[in-house]
Request: fold
Amino acid sequence: MRGNILFVGFLIIGVLLIACKKVTTGNFVQYDDTPYSLNYINNTLPIPNLPADNPLTKAKVELGRALFYEKSMSSDGTVSCASCHNQATGFSDPDQFSFGVNDAQGNRQAMAIINLAWNDNEFFWDGRAHLLRDQSLGPIENPLEMNETLENVIQKLNTNTKIKQLFIRAFGSAEITSEKMSLAMENFMMSIVSDDSKFDRYLAGKAVLTPSEERGRVLYFAEYNEFFPEVSGADCAHCHAGNNFENDQYMNNGLDLTSQFVDFGREDATGNVNDRAKFKVPTLRNIEVTGPYMHDGRFETLEEVIDHYNEGVKHSTTVDPALLGTTSTGLMLDAQDKEDLINFLKTLTDYTMLTNPAYSDPN
Reply:
């Protein structure tokens, strides 16, 4: 009888221990440093120069994604990074100027957040953020955007159990700091890859361009030649070069006369008067859906953009010399040239990226 009692007792203790173990395992969040591999589809982009001090991990990308869509990071809980960088519009804003907390309005068009892993010459239109992690925190404290302090954001995130668990998984600690926030958001933004446009599939031998798209491609990459109009091109690749269609530089593209400068652009970051009215050259990937265009969103359509380069470049003290060299004749593009060029630009739209659930709101 005593043996039976002891057996039952041990059995009960064993069941309780197993039950406790299950509960502990179910709630325990463990640090995870599993590497995150960029999602190449057509391999048309070069290997990026990723930051060695912030390697991409699945857990940091997941945390950065959650923070990117987290509205509590704004002072009134209505604005997130995604509010001004919408996935469906190439992580840009269809409004000329974005609206922040209390309907405050910015003064520059929201840049598209795509293929940032291939940018290493500072960030924002004027390059005032040295690293992408620095850029990620800027909108939080900007009174025209999220209008919040980093201290308040940390306090609010500390009340979010799910977010705290993501911090543990990403960094091995529940402690939330602005540095960890920035590293995670840098990871997420670098994870956004666009390389599945029709043009990418064309390069990979999976698609064929239409005659109009092909003619537009030739025009895009051909240089301007005022002496031989029959072979003169649109010279777009002078600034929007390579398979990411940008050059990571700051340039004045002839939008205004010197007397018309309102936004000093790069000069605001460097203090160098020679940088006045120069802005970062953005990628043309997904350009079909990222309008309005230019740093101030002054052009609503691609037709307007091409008309500017064809016949509207203005002389100023800092305008790019290559653009200035086209002003004697303009690019000499006729109506068919413009249509073909736009048709080519539309082959840069990556519908896979625009709908990829890996980049969407996790909530």
About this structure: Residues 69 and 83 are 8 Å apart (CA to CA).
